[in-house]
Amino acid sequence: MVLITLLGGFWVIWCPAFGGQVDVCKVEGIIGPVCSEFIVEAICQAAADSAVCLIIELDTPGGLDTSMRDIIKELMASEVPVVVYVSPSGSRAASAGVFVTMAAHVAAMAPGTNIGAAHPVVFGGGKMDSTMVEKIANDAAAYIKTIAEKRGRNADWAEKAVRESVSATEKEALELGVIDLVCRDVPALLDSLDGRRVSLPSGERVLHTSEAVVKEISMGLRERVLSAIADPNIAYILMILGIYGLIFEMSHPGAYLPGVVGGICLILAFFAFQTLSVNYAGVLLILFAVILFIAEILTPTYGVLATGGVIAMVLGSTMLFDASVPFLKVSWTVILPAVIATALFFLFAVGMGLKVQRRKSCTGIPDLIGRVGEARTDIDKKGTVFISGEHWRSVSDEPIKAGERVRVVGMDHLVVKVVKDKE
User: Fold this and answer.
1) At 376, which CATH number?
2) Residues identified as active-site
3) Per residue in 318-340, pLDDT tens?
4) In the list 271, 293, 333, 383, which could disulfide-bond 346, CB 3.0-4.6 Å?
5) Buried b (16+ CB within 10 A) or exposed e, 235-253
6) Is 86 found in the same domain as 117?
């Protein structure tokens, strides 16, 4: 704040002490391409703001190795001190989150948090032999050890976090030298950071954060949307909605809206699949289930094809994301309602629609066939009849007197063919 006032005929400019600016961003959920992009942008924004440091409030179950390495590269090259703060209470830095925390210039945790379980998880449609899994584990262990040694942290514990999936509370992590600070909130963290020295590529820097102004960096709308759809449950729902939309559009050409919405949902779903390394065998099983549901409607097999469709859809849903960790799988609370809703949709909604299309018309010219009316004139080859509240020109192969009941047996353009109603 700058105050300009008039004192004794002179303009006086007064500027209070200013401790600089600290940027803060929150990262929650899976570490993927969107999260990686957001953190990189936050580091660039902190550099543009000439911020004293950037604080990343982290709460993650883990994520993709490639995205994690992109983040760590930026942390290692950053000329802005980066503080990774596992916060708030109840949060965790697991799997890829351990690597990111270790790579920070300053690592801090809030009370009631934990860190660890960084053993690499292989997922994405194929199984690897024990030799390949061991190679991946060795690579991850070497990577986290060099990060820990670079930052002066406990490299032995870091290696155990990868090889043995060990975890630690915030107090244990502080005692083991895994992190640098335990602070209850951001203001307390700023007080603890004040005067601390950090090593940057350009040299050492002393942090002055006690009187710093805090600026929050938030995800933009694009990042929030992409981050949301990267959730396996959301991606699965988008795929189901996309299939519904396209099927409805194909069955009702010209509706446009279902096709547009379905196409958008499928495109977003496939973007998420790329992020989550989807198992396409699961996708094929779900599409096969849809085909079985349609076949059950067109050629009723008394539930055989429908049962096969339900089984195929359940198997496809469970196989869709081939991972051994819960946060990379579709929840059963999403799978079961989706399977039931899909089966009901095809067996009842679509089935009833096809039955309606096959029913005999109840209105218009075809409905006149079989109707009973009255001859209004004598019919000798030609005449006039009254049927369903209307007068019609008529023809008959037999003579019919006026007033006799007649039945329609055919029609040629707008002329009805009638016979005597003997019933």
Assistant:
1) 2.40.50.140
2) 95, 135
3) 887 765 556 667 788 888 888 88
4) 293
5) bbbbbbbbbbbbbbbeeee
6) yes
